[in-house]
């Protein structure tokens, strides 16, 4: 077979490992492990979503609504945008694939920040496009430098805000300048997967009407606790959304995902509990890790980046203690691990394990 030549050098994305898999490898009961690796909701899924999913199970033999009519209508009303400005994907990752299919090819490129979400360069290379990587600024985006890096061949500029894996947040004026001062041929994708965790988020939705080259992405995976259902969505100008729908598979959003997301939209109690748990957890980890002499990056998401010296080794030691974190060598941060915010008990257990390892952690200044 003559496979696409870019596959020869395309790295494979390594997701966080499931608890069951790690438990098998370590010979431990799954119930003894805690997973703080994948930025999942420590409080679990929205209870309203769980009930809706159960009620929908009897419809599993039927194809889902390809247009996600009821979810589209409810979300449009909640966001105060026209329904035709929404597109749904099998997780936000599929939305990223949509824009790659629609805009990228040989001879084109994308612009990303140094510590960007790994999927952005992957979809570019798969499409035969190049990736321009701009050095970070304090582990976050240097949006001015990114805008200056744009060429006539640049088709997409990706900004995750807050950023994964660093948790950094770009300022309001910087984001607005990026959108208003970028060339018309450039699609600006603002990935807002952690938007709902922000205390004072910048609402970019009103800019869509005046910005034909702006696409916002959000997800039900994080604060709603529906990562296993794989449901994300994009918000953009109608003309762009119409084009993206041409590369979308007709039944990409399964019936349980639609019903679960629809129910979760109105579960304000679950959202507020998640926000409170996250705020308390971020504060606890930031303060206690500082007392251990461990550097962290101030986080605006539901995880925190911790400098431990040898990320891979500390990751392995923590795993033997039954705590799954995420080593960051794949992101160009070999001295760091990423720790998702867990329940209060899980956070304390992780801190105790790190405290026990502290004498062996050597962090270069």
Quickly list its features:
Aspartate Aminotransferase, domain 1; 365 residues; alpha/beta; seven-stranded mixed beta sheet; 2 domains; 15% strand; Aspartate Aminotransferase, domain 2
Word description of this protein:
The chain has 365 residues and is of the alpha/beta class. The chain folds into two domains: 5-44 and 268-357, Aspartate Aminotransferase, domain 1 (Alpha-Beta Complex); 47-264, Aspartate Aminotransferase, domain 2. 36% of the residues lie in helices and 15% in strands. The protein is built from twelve helices and 13 strands. The chain has helices spanning 19-26, 47-56, 69-79, 92-103, 119-126, 143-149, 172-181, 238-245, 255-264, 268-291, 311-320, 344-357, and strands at residues 34-35, 86-89, 109-113, 130-134, 154-160, 187-191, 214-219, 232-235, 296-297, 303-307, 323-324, 326-327, 336-340. The strands form three sheets. A seven-stranded mixed β-sheet has the order 2-8-7-6-5-3-4. It has a four-stranded antiparallel β-sheet with strand order 9-10-13-12, covered by helices on one side. A two-stranded parallel sheet has the order 1-11. Helix 2 packs antiparallel against helix 9, helix 3 (69-79) packs parallel to helix 9 and helix 10 runs parallel beside helix 12 (344-357). The longest helix is centred in the C-terminal third of the chain and has 24 residues, at 268-291.
